[in-house]
Write a structure and sequence with these properties.
Blueprint lengths: L2 E5 L2 E3 L5 E8 L8 E7 L3 E8 L6 E3 L7 E6 L5 E6 L8 E7 L2 E2 L3 E5 L2
């Protein structure tokens, strides 16, 4: 059974940091490109970042470039990460990881003072 489980969201002040995790199971994690997207009531769905198989390459949206960094642990944990620094109120959203046509349940990030 393919499963993606996100964690790490929460409430943080502007300028703060969070690291999201996405634990993958039920498929060959190392063979899949993985993605982070976010959803807000006002903007809808927004692609945030992608990471190639074997950590061969990463891409991030202009809105988060230089602040967000995706990574993956292919060896032990089969986990996708999103390090988020210098968070802004505009980053408030429900964050999802995606892979092999499957979505996680999402983790809420709220940036507010």
């Amino acid at each position: 059974q393919v499963q993606l489980v996100e964690s790490g969201g929460g409430l943080v002040q502007p300028g703060g940091s969070l690291r999201l995790s996405c634990a993958a199971s039920g498929f060959t994690f190392t063979a899949q490109h993985m993605y982070w997207v976010r959803q807000t009531p006002g903007k809808g769905l927004e692609w945030v970042s992608s990471i190639n198989t074997g950590n061969g390459g990463t891409w991030t949206a202009d809105s988060v470039k230089g602040r967000f960094t995706p990574s993956r642990d292919n060896n032990v944990k089969n986990t996708l990460y999103l390090q988020m620094n210098s968070l802004e109120p505009e980053d408030t959203a429900l964050y999802y990881c995606l892979g092999i046509g499957t979505w996680g349940q999402g983790t809420q990030v709220t940036v507010s003072s």
